[in-house]
Amino acid sequence: xxxxxxxxxxxxxxxxxxxxxxxxxxxxxxxxxxxxxxxxxxxxxxxxxxxxxxxxxxxxxxxxxxxxxxxxxxxxxxxxxxxxxxxxxxxxxxxxxxxxxxxxxxxxxx
Length: 110
Fold this sequence. Notes:
The protein is an alpha+beta fold. Helices cover about 35% and strands about 25% of the residues.
């Protein structure tokens, strides 16, 4: 599912999409999908697209940050999606915080 989420984010022009195999370090989820939108409006659009396209199969257990749009979190239990603005992603630096976990390769959109 993490790769499917990454593909949906790419369809909405998300940048710097990264998948962290966080399940190696924690027990509450398997993957973090990180993506960057240019501004709060785009981060909300990316998150909305993911929720809309996955809705027939899955619904997030929790959604946080939609109103502000600086950091939108979609919790699908086994996959947690983080959609950031560039400033928020730079501030929280989740890739650095979880630098010791494996990353899955995300193919660049064609």
